[in-house]
Amino acid sequence: MRHLVVALLLAAAGCTDLIELDAGLPDVPCQPACDVPTRCVAAECVMPPLTDVATSLHATCIVVDGASVWCWGGNESFELGVGDMLPRAAPVQAEGIPAPIHALHRGVFSFCAVAGPARDLYCWGNVSWNRANVGANQYETPRRVEAVTDVTDVAIGQRHICAVLGGEELRCAGINAQGQLGQPLEQELVDWEPVALPRPVRSVSTTTSVNMAHTTCVVAGAPAQVLCFGGNRWLQLGLDASVEVNPVPNVVPLPAEPVRVAVGQQHVCAVTVDDRVFCWGYGRDLMTGGPQQSVVPVPIELPPPVRVDVRHLEAVMLHNLLVSEQPPAVYGWGSGVQGVLGVSWDRVEPVVVFRSEDPIVALSSLEHTCLITGDAERTTLFCTGANGDGQLGTRDLGARTELTAVDPFSRR
After folding, report:
1. Highest mean pLDDT among 171-185, 287-301, 362-376
2. How high is the pLDDT of residue 345?
3. Does the pLDDT of residue 16 top 50, yes or no?
4. Do residues 7 and 1 make contact, with C-beta atoms less than 8 angstroms apart?
5. Pairing mode, strands 101-106 and 88-93
6. CB-based contact 69:62 (threshold 8 Å)
7. Fewer CB near the last or first residue (10 Å), C or N of the chain?
8. Residue 300 has pLDDT above 70, yes or no
9. Within the chain, how many helices (H) and strands (E) appear?
10. What's the sign of the alpha-carbon dihedral 29, 31, 37, 38?
11. Rounded Cα–Cα distance for residues 138 and 110 (Å)
C-alpha cells in the first residue's frame, strides 16, 4: 500500500522515471501471513473472487475462485463436509471436490457440487434420497455420485434429487411417494431412473422443504414448456383439485416460452423469454403475488416492476427472489419473516430489496439469503435472515433484516 501511495504522488509531480525505479521494490508482506484461501494484496489479506453460493437450512457454502468449496454454520447432518458434526463460525474447506467447480446446489441439510472436467456430481450432508441404494443416508464428506455425469442442473428435495444430464435428459432418485420423480406411484423408491420428457431439458426445480405436496417442475422441449409432476395439493401442477398426485409430467400453459422455473413450498413461479414472471399455487403469505390465503389455479403475471432482464429466480419456503441484470438488483415478494427477503415485512408484489453497482453473480435462499456481487477480480458476499447457527458468516448469532456485506474469512 505504501508503494502505491508513493507512486501516485510521484506521478502527480511528473516523476515517472522514479516510479519505474520504485516499481521494482518488493511487495510489503502481510503480517501475520494470510490464511488460505485469502491472498496478500498490498499488505492486506483479501478474499479471492467468489463464483457461487448455496444456503441450506442452517449452513452456507461458497465456491472460491471456481476451485474450492468452503462452508460454515450448523453441521448436525455433516452439511460442512469435513467429517464431523461440529458447527463452525469460520469457513472450513469441504475437500475432495475437483476443479473446476461449475455450480453449487443446496438441499435442506445437504449440498451438491457439479465439478471436474466431466461435470460430475459430488454431494455431502443428509442424502436421504440415497435410500434406493444400499448405502449411507449421510455423506460425512463430499462423495461422487457415480450414477450421473455431464450434469447441467440439479434440484434437491428433502428425500429426493433430480439432475439434468447433458441438457437432454432428467434422471431422479429417492422417494417417489407422490410421483415427484416422474415414475409410477407403485414405484416407491427410485434409483436414478430417467423421466419421460421432451428434449432438450433446460432446468429443473423441486420442493425443498418438508410439506404435504412434493412437486417437481422442468423447462423442457422445443419450443420450451413448463412441465410439472408430483403432488398437486395446492394446484402446483396446473391441474384441477380433483387430481391429488400425478407422476406424468403435465404442461402448464404460459403465454411465452419459459426460460426458468422455481418450485416453492406450495407454489411455483416461472420466468419467460420476454422477461415476465408468472406464479401459481397457494397464495398464503403472498407467495404467488395474488390474493392472500387463496389458491391461484392458473399462472398469473406479476405486475411491474418485475418485467426486467431476469436471470436468477428463487421460489423457496414462503417467499420468492429474482435478479435483474440491468440494472443489477434483487426483487423480493412473499413472507419477510426473519428478514429473509432483505426487508422485515411481507410483500404482495415484487419490490427492490437490494441494489448493486456491480453484477450479481449468484443468489441462494432458504431461511437465510446470500448473494455475490462483483466481477472476475473482486467480489462481495451479502447475507440476511436467520443466523441461529452462525450461517450468515458474521461471527455472531444475531439475525439480519437487510442484506449485509460479510467477509467470512475475516479474523475478527
Report:
1. 171-185
2. 58
3. no
4. no
5. unpaired
6. yes
7. C
8. yes
9. 2, 30
10. negative
11. 9
Collapse the DSSP code of 337 into the 3-class scheme (helix H, G, I; strand E, B; otherwise coil) and give the result: helix
Closest C-alpha to 392, from 362, 378, 361, 371 = 371
Q: Identify the CA nearest to 172 among candidates 143, 194, 139.
A: 194
Residue 26 has pLDDT above 50, yes or no: no
In the numeric block, which cell numbers belong to residue 94? 469441504
Question: What is the amino acid identity at position 201?
Answer: V
Q: Taking all residues of the chain, what is their mean pLDDT, rounded to a whole number?
A: 86
Strand partners, 313: 322
* Whole-angstrom distance, CA of residue 399 vs CA of residue 409: 19
Q: What is the pTM of this model?
A: 0.89
Q: Which residues of 26-45 are buried (b: 16+ CB within 10 A; e: fewer)?
A: eeeebeeebeeebeeeeeeb
Of 10-19, 27-36, 52-61, least confident by mean pLDDT is 10-19
Q: Is the pLDDT of residue 244 over 50?
A: yes
Size of the chain in residues: 412
Q: Give 203's strand partners.
A: 219
Helix, strand, or coil (residue 281)? strand
The grid cell for 307 is: 418485467
CA end-to-end span of the chain:
22
At 17, is the secondary structure helix, strand, or coil?
helix
Cβ neighbours around 294 below 10 Å, total: 11
What pLDDT, on a 0 to 100 scale, did the predictor assign at position 341? Answer: 54
